[in-house]
């Protein structure tokens, strides 16, 4: 990225410190993230910037980086974040309307098996979380002792019936 000095880059290609630039302002543009059915949509509010003032990169690890510098007023920004594993890194597309940069990141197609596995893992994690937070007595609304007595009575009755029928048939 160019230095804050309009004449050219600083030594080593690094941006000069804000003190040396006479007041470079680092901004943090507003970011919106939408998770759609087939794609992720990322919107950055960049008023006063031109298309030539910023750069978008996606590396092979799925890290998306947007950085820019506006020479007029010496304003710059840098946003970087990790895309989800379901993102199709090859299909990232962008559009800039003069104030908002919209990036569309398509999702990888999901097979039926992958979807079922994801749902099973999600259900298993949810059940595990519930099991940690709830005892059987709580799940039964405080009537756990009554249910336990009923189960024990049923088991005893089944055992006795089996013994009686076994004794009479032999």
TrEMBL record:
SUPFAM superfamilies on file: HSP20-like chaperones
Residues of the SHSP domain: 22-126
UniProt KW keywords: Stress response
InterPro entries registered for this protein in UniProt: A-crystallin/Hsp20_dom (IPR002068), HSP20-like_chaperone (IPR008978), Small_HSP (IPR031107)
Domain of life, source organism: Eukaryota
PANTHER family assigned to the protein according to its UniProt record, in alphabetical order: HEAT-SHOCK PROTEIN 20 FAMILY MEMBER
Family per similarity comment: Belongs to the small heat shock protein (HSP20) family.
Protein known as: SHSP domain-containing protein
Native source species: Miscanthus lutarioriparius
